[in-house]
Request: fold
Amino acid sequence: MKRGKLFSAVLTSAFVVSALVGLSACGEPPHTHEFSEHTFYCVKTEEQQDKVYSFKVCDCGENDTETLVENAIIVDETTADSIVRGHLYDLTNKVVVFKKGTYSSSIAGGTKNYHNVIFAGEYTGENKEVVFEAGSYLYTQGSYSIDGLEYNNISFKNRLFLGSQTNDIKNVDINNCSFVNEDADKGDLPAILIAPKVDKHVTSENIVVKNCSIDGFYQGILIYQNKNLTIENNIIKNTIHNAVGIQLNSGYTNKITGTISISNNEILNIIGPSQTGERAIRFGQLENATITVANNKFLNAVDGDSEILKASGLVKSTISFTNNTNAGEKIPDKEINAQSPSFAIVV
Reply:
């Protein structure tokens, strides 16, 4: 989400789902990630009209005052398709709050802009009670684009995919979401895939994945053609391939660049295609990139050569690998200033 963007549109009563029971208060906030802050959206019934309030929660127990969100759209399982997937409404500068429940259809779209949009699971006192069984698939075409998009407090049972035919994907926050794949056959899908494609010059820019949990996918987070990325305070476990992959699609021209931070994550039990383990982090084709990998906890996250991180095709780029642990033991710090080599961090 574009930082500092305020929402000012008026709540449109035609969008509001009227049947709410027992939601007169937002409930107590969860305390899941130490020293982090979460924004939640709750629905209250006041004077015969349902309204959305936002509030911030710090894990130290301090809460911000609830603030009325005047540009909210409230949807349930019967109205989500027509509003979000059916392309009937302009969602620009809107907060779309999904009522507690399980959504069987993929939240999908393509022939519209996603500019300064928040997709939020309703908070009722319990965390992540909104379930997207089929995941979310947004692929913009032609002149349409993604620029300012947030997913908040949603549980995914399938992947979250963001793609673009011709325009850059910019300013995406994926915050306080969970991704659980319970299928025995993990296929080849990452939990989070951001992949501009078709036009080989498009990029993804200013992407944040924070306070999320990922369990059981082929890969955890896979991002192509990126500029500026933050992966922070997540738990990624039981993937077949890399927990985090930041790479270049075959034949594309824009390399990975900018500032990349992977910090304060727990990366556990990377299984490997042959059940022999796999490295946690993979970088490919970086140029003028500044990378920080710091304060992460790894466990069973190496391949058969004991590599925990591998990078290739570095041009004028640096990697700072500091204060990380493997199975509770500190990994020696490394500072890499590289020109076009491939290298690995071995534990």
In short: Residues 1-34 have pLDDT under 50 and may be disordered. The longest helix spans residues 80-85.
